[in-house]
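2024-03-11 09:14:02 DEBUG pipeline.ingest accepted 1 chain
2024-03-11 09:14:02 DEBUG pipeline.ingest length=192
2024-03-11 09:14:03 DEBUG pipeline.predict start
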Amino acid sequence: MTAMFDLFDEPVVAGLRKRDEFITAEEEAALIGQIDAVDLSPFKFQQWTGKRLTRSFGWSYDFESGRFAPTDPIPDWLAPIKARAARFAGLETDDLVQALLIRYDPGAGIGWHKDRPVFEHVVGLSLGNVATLRLRRRTDRGFDRASAELAPRSIYHLSGEVRHHWEHSIAAMDLPRWSITFRSLSEKGRRA
């Protein structure tokens, strides 16, 4: 099954919600400038170094050690967009306790994964250029697949079925892209 959003922007996968034009072009430019001013580091997963540059605030998950721990607080400049993202997702602002900034230079993407179980809601803001959010779920016959276009200035929310039963990835891009991903803690994360 390969699916996109239907005529009325209803997701084919339960728990995926998105909205285009969530912020203005001026807000997008300011956020990109702020992200580029942050000390970003290459993403590391065990012995592998990715092409994307990242920085976590609030909570950090170290993929080399498996350590989940508090880190630098979410910067004040993210507070207004965090509040708007929480409202979009139907959450309280304080529920979003982690912010991940990513810059995708040409050739960068994200492979298939599910966010760590210490996190629950995933709310992402897409900046700069169009990206494709790919989704897949293993079945007895192989994989069910779906995808959604993430336009610049759009926001998406992963919860429920799509968050827990589907993997997602971002196809490698030819043009630069930036993203801000906010996450809430799961029950497991709160216990940690």
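2024-03-11 09:14:41 DEBUG pipeline.report Confidence is low (pLDDT under 50) at residues 1-8.
2024-03-11 09:14:41 DEBUG pipeline.predict end
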